[in-house]
Amino acid sequence: MKAKEGVINLLNKILTADLTAINQYFVHAKMCDNWGYERLHHKVRERSIDEMKDADELIGHILYLEGVPNVQRMNTVHVGETVPEQFKLDLKAEQEMLALLSDGVVHCTKVGDFTTRHMLEDMAKDVDEHIDWIETQLETIKQVGLENYLAEQIKKES
After folding, report:
1. CA 118, CA 139: separation in Å to the nearest integer?
2. Residue list, annotated binding site for Fe cation
3. Which EC number(s) does the record attach to this protein (predicted)?
């Protein structure tokens, strides 16, 4: 199926953001593992894998629309040196992704590509849930203090 005007370019921009996020979350997960924050390691690693699944879906959809996925391009990976810094950088990346997805939904509606629009809406819902999770972690740190928060991250949830 041939893509509507601008859709391949839009999907490749989202793919670039996803490929960047995969790496950012992967590094943050490894750092948490190295610091002994097992619960946080598993949660952030899970997010990296979710981003891989999104990238897989995007690549498949670009190919379906007879486009070429651009997997060579990546934005700057921002690595936080502390857990709160990681959360802030991840939050910024998720907010930028949500804006990109929202713009994509508007564009797809305008050009009449409802299949792509639906896929982007589903991705936006997932991003919105992750933004909420990060904001909750930052608020918890604010309320209980960083040391108390990190002490709870040492063991994996049962």
Report:
1. 32
2. 50-51, 94, 130
3. 1.16.3.1
Which residue ranges make up the annotated binding site?
A: 50-52, 94, 130
Residues of the chain with pLDDT under 70: 156-158
| CA nearest neighbour of 27 among 75, 79, 74 | 79
**Which residue ranges are tagged as binding site for heme b?**
52
Counting DSSP H helices and E strands in the chain, the numbers are 5, 0
Distance between CA atoms of 40 and 90, rounded to whole angstroms? 13
- Domains of the chain by range and CATH? 7-152 (1.20.1260.10)
Q: How many CB atoms lie within 10 A of CB 75?
A: 15
* Helix, strand, coil percentages in the chain from 3-state DSSP, rounded to 5: 80, 0, 20
End-to-end CA distance of the chain: 46
User: What is the token pair recorded at 150?
Assistant: 């990190």
pTM of the model: 0.93
